[in-house]
Amino acid sequence: MKDMGNTYFDEALDGFINIPEGTYPAHLLALEVIPTKKEGLLRFQSTFKLAEEVSELIINKVTKVDAEFINVLDADGNEVMINGSTLVGKTVKNNCFVTANPIQGEGWRNRKYIDFFTNLGVQFPEVEGKTKVMEIEESDVIGAPTLVTMNSRQWEGQKGMNISMEVSSNAPWADGVRLDPSELDSDIPF
Question: Residue 86: what are its φ and ψ, rounded to 5°?
Answer without folding.
Answer: -70, -15
